[in-house]
Amino acid sequence: MKETLVIYLICSLSIVSLRAQSYRTDFSSKDYVDTGATMVWLGPSMSGQLPMGALRQTFKANLALGANVTAKTKKNWTFDVSFSYMFGSNLRDKTGAFLGDMVREVGGEYIIIDGNGLESQLYFEGRYWYVGPSVGKVIPVSRWRNSGIWIRFGAGYFGHKIRINDYDNQVPQLLDDYKKLYDHRSSGFAMNQFIGYLFIQKNRILNFYGGIEFYEIWSKPNRNYVFPEGPTANMKRKFSGLVGLKIGWNIPLYEKKSVTTFYYK
Predict the structure, then answer these.
(1) Range of 83's domain?
(2) Strands (E), the chain
């Protein structure tokens, strides 16, 4: 059994070694092509995030789907515009206190009396969205210069709210504009940072990135009145944050290669 395992490991390491050698640029020849390239790609992504600050008082962990259009220069500077839609965040407030005495919690469910005098169940979920540009730098860790440690800094617009679902639409307190009194929709300026690894395969088939992402958010209510706080005109901006893991897939849209020839004696 042990001998079989050792043989298997040796074969696996040999395959990995041969695979790595196939990616390596040959600097021992008379000339070689500089691997840096100007590129543009579309990058769908997925994240898992934890809220901090004011957001943490209301929401738990969330998921996020996003997309970005990125341009990378030959010198490995990156410029992109990204959009993220964040969902799946359960409320930390298990009593539905932001709806006042209208709602009671029974066995983990939110119950309200509808317009017919019957009990109706409500569902609450956090919703966030972000859009903005960023600038970054890819720091190569090998002779293949299009891959490496990727650091990005960005700024943009961030919004969030409580999504209130009454699937039967039988609760008059939550119909039309009345629902806006309770959704706590807020928005404001945000900054974000990302540090991770970008991998661009030579044949451009396998292109992905992954790392840690941070958001710092300064938001203020968008509604003139929210329950139970009241008028929002004099409310100050609240600080929130998000931190999470992000992975993405890059779909090449454009590439421009330039050839630099080096001669050896």
Answers:
(1) 2-257
(2) 37-53, 62-72, 77-89, 103-106, 109-113, 119-139, 148-165, 186-200, 207-221, 225-226, 230-231, 238-249, 251-257
